[in-house]
Amino acid sequence: MPSNFAPLKNDTFLKALLRQPTEYTPLWLMRQAGRYLPEYCATRKRAGSFLGLAKNPDYATEVTLQPLERYPLDAAILFSDILTVPDAMGLGLYFAEGEGPKFERPLRDEKAVMALQTPQEGSLQYVFDAVTQIRGALNGRVPLIGFSGSPWTLACYMVEGGGSDDFRTVKTMLYNRPDLMHHILRTNAAAVAAYLNAQIEAGAQAVMIFDTWGGVLADGIYQQFSLAYMREVLGQLKREHAGEKIPAIVFTKGGGLWLEQIADSGADAVGLDWTVNLGQARARVGHKVALQGNLDPNVLFAGPDQIRTEVEKLLNSYGTPSAGNGHVFNLGHGISQFTPPESVTVLVEAVHSFSRRQRG
Fold it and tell me: Which locations, inside or outside the cell, does it occupy (predicted)?
């Protein structure tokens, strides 16, 4: 890691993840660098495509910093895509107009599955270059989050060949040929652990595992095919680098049912979607992990007064902060591309000001 990174000026986010006292509740937003910002749309147009944006460290740096120029957020998150890893495994990622990500060579039979290997060295260098460049450009303003999809979530795209409404293909393989599914998940877990560790070495100060599709699994199956492999990844992560602690966040969308088990996975913090009561979640996990979340992203389509009311309800639900407890404010999933940018201004101001008042 380059040793010339500037010292951190605002470490509130990292402190909250480690359940240390903070002066206010820090916040960042999933998908904060995205299509709701006109400046992002302008840069994406210049890049020519989504992959043109994600695979160019200069553009990735530019769009990562855009929301921080506009809002006093407490963390930056690397601009990238969870599908960079399967793309580097040779599945041929492309984006179909209006359809989202697709793979040219999905894993549909035993031959394809058994041929699967972790990415070759150098195939994801553009991501690590972006991490180092962003960390330098942040100049210590706020910490930088690196991330990956979970082994199960990546497998969903790799087997389905893209997004899915019913996950029929991947679940058919899971139930019919669990041996093949475990082979994919083992390979993915090794790839994800190496990928996150390389981001940490490049300058990421916290990492997050997005288990976007964990919630589509049945109870019992989730533990075996998603949680077990995230645990495997967490067990291999560098949790300290260059004298800094590197916290890890796990987020299973639809995973509220399994909160206690996720809190036992080895993560420092658990992300929650909006279906979970934050106060009850805090009672359920105790002092084990910090919590991140969990405002419904659609609240941002309401008026300013309603946004403030919902923010206060959520912060009151978490309860008065005390030493050793951590809360990072976030949405329960990614911000919608249709969100008015001025609604985010209201949100950030409300979280910062009300959480300071809470601490009296």
Answer: Cytoplasm
